[in-house]
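#structure-requests
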Amino acid sequence: MALVGATVYDAKARSKACEAPRESCPETRADQDFLDKCRLAGFQVRQCGCEQVCTGNVMLKKKHYDAQGHAKDCAPEQPECTPADTSAAFQDACTDGGHKLVVCGCEWLCAGPLK
């Protein structure tokens, strides 16, 4: 497994080296809020040992980028708002940079710098 030994982060933003997933683990409740923040920030959720962790530190204030490449803070998604469609060029620039589009406030932003 390529993730073994890689730095990952738990729900309290503590970094640790990833262990190989264990076959039998005690049943625990996953911190769904943490897992959602991890995915929305463009990171991946992985199992290391018996713990669900994130491949990035979601507690850092990470900048997101608009279609013009301007850095912005990601505001919480507005519940009753549908963001306008984005251009294919913006979507491609975001995914080519290894990132995901996320809804911030009521607009689509890229979770990392555009390529």
